[in-house]
Amino acid sequence: NRMEFLASYFGAMCAGMVAVPVNYRLPSATIAYILEQADVRLILCDRERRAGLPAGTGRATARACVSRPVS
């Protein structure tokens, strides 16, 4: 629900990727299942959620942190 999310979401689609939004409130095992089934290769999240990403997230070789610059 932030501008960074929208820019990332539409940027992925413009690059020919498929964005798979995932609710961070889901149990870790469910998130891992979604990421595995979607065969993700890149994960975009904010700093607060990065530490909570499940281990073994499919073929994801990159995790990028999307957040507002610190003032």
Task: Give a topology summary.
Layout: H1 3-14, H2 28-37, E1 42-45, H3 47-50, E2 62-65
Parallel strand pairs: 1-2
In short:
By secondary structure, this protein is an alpha+beta fold. The chain contains three helices and two strands; from the N terminus they run ααβαβ. The radius of gyration is 12 Å and the shape is globular.
What would your notes on this structure say?
With 71 residues, the protein is of the alpha+beta class. The protein has helices at residues 3-14, 28-37, 47-50, and strands at 42-45, 62-65. It has three helices and two strands. It has a two-stranded parallel ribbon. It is globular, with a radius of gyration of 12 Å. The model has no long low-confidence stretch (mean pLDDT 78).
Keywords summarizing the entry:
71 residues, 3 helices, alpha+beta, two-stranded parallel sheet
Number of helices: 3
Structural class, please? alpha+beta
Strand content: 5-15%
- Describe the largest sheet: 2 strands, parallel
Gross geometry: globular
Number of separate strands: 2
Helix content: 25-40%
pLDDT averaged over residues: 78
Instruction: Compute the CA-based radius of gyration.
Output: 12 Å
Largest beta sheet: strand ordering: 1-2
From the structure provided, what is the oligomeric state, counting identical versus distinct chains? single chain
Return the string of H and E elements.
HHEHE
Query: Which regions have little confidence, pLDDT < 50, spanning 5+ residues?
Result: none
Calculate the terminal CA-CA distance, rounded to whole Å.
20 Å
